[in-house]
Specification:
- The chain is of the alpha+beta class and 187 residues long.
- It contains 4 helices and 4 strands, in the order H-H-H-E-E-H-E-E.
- It has helices spanning 3-22, 29-49, 76-91, 140-152; strands spanning 119-125, 130-132, 159-165, 169-176.
- It has a 4-stranded antiparallel beta sheet.
- Strand 1 (119-125) and strand 2 (130-132) form a beta hairpin.
- Helix 1 runs antiparallel to helix 2.
- The protein is elongated, with a radius of gyration of 40 Å.
Length: 187
C-alpha cells in the first residue's frame, strides 16, 4: 500500500466513523444511501490497496503458510515445531546422529587442502639459491615480460627462471646459467 492509498483509505474510514456516530433511529433513508455509497467507496479503496492473498492461518510468523486444522493458529509449521518440543519433553532430546569425533578421511578434510591456484613465479638466482623476485603473476606473458625487464635493468641477476605453480611446481623456462658462488669470508 503506497502513501496515497493509505491517506485515501484513512479519510474514507474516518468519514464512516462520523456516519456511525451520527446514526439514530430516525435517520432518513437519503442519509443511509449516502452511508452505503461511502461504505462502498471505502471497500473499493481497500480492494485496490490489498496486494497479497488473504492469510490462510492465524499465525503472525507464517500468515500464508500450510494449514493444519488441528492447530490452534491453523499453522502447520508452528504446530510441527510445537509437537517436536512436546515429544522431546516426554522422550528426552533426540539422539545425535553424528559422532562427536570427526571421521578421518584418507583424502583429508576440504579445509586442509588449499584450492589450486595457477600462478607464475618469477625467480632469480642470488648465487646460492633461487629466490622469488617480484610478485607472483596470474598471467604467464606478464611474468615473462617482467623477467625481460629485469634482464634489461641496471643490475640484472646471473639467471632468472619462471616457475609454474598449480597444485605443484614446474620450471617452465630459465634465462642465464645459475652458478653456485661460495660466500667469501670476511678478511
Amino acid at each position: 500500500m503506497n502513501h496515497a492509498q493509505l491517506t485515501a483509505l484513512g479519510r474514507a474510514l474516518r468519514l464512516l466513523g462520523e456516519h456511525g456516530e451520527a446514526l439514530t433511529t430516525d435517520t432518513p433513508d437519503a442519509r443511509l444511501h449516502e452511508v452505503k455509497a461511502d461504505l462502498r467507496r471505502a471497500l473499493d479503496l481497500l480492494e485496490e490497496s490489498v496486494s497479497s492473498a488473504p492469510p490462510s492461518t492465524r499465525c503472525a510468523e507464517h500468515p500464508t503458510g500450510p494449514v493444519d486444522e488441528s492447530a490452534p493458529d491453523l499453522c502447520l509449521l508452528c504446530e510441527t515445531r510445537r509437537r517436536a518440543a512436546r515429544r522431546a519433553e516426554f522422550n528426552g532430546p533426540a539422539p545425535h546422529t553424528r559422532p562427536t569425533e570427526p571421521v578421518q578421511s584418507r583424502y583429508g578434510i576440504r579445509g586442509d587442502r588449499p584450492q589450486p591456484q595457477q600462478r607464475w613465479l618469477p625467480e632469480l638466482w642470488n648465487g646460492q639459491a633461487w629466490q622469488l623476485c617480484g610478485t607472483p603473476r596470474r598471467d604467464r606473458r606478464e611474468a615473462e615480460l617482467y623477467i625481460a625487464a629485469q634482464l634489461r635493468g641496471p643490475r640484472p641477476a646471473m639467471a632468472y627462471r619462471l616457475v609454474h605453480e598449480f597444485t605443484d611446481y614446474e620450471v617452465l623456462r630459465v634465462w642465464g646459467t645459475p652458478v653456485r658462488v661460495d660466500v667469501e669470508p670476511m678478511p
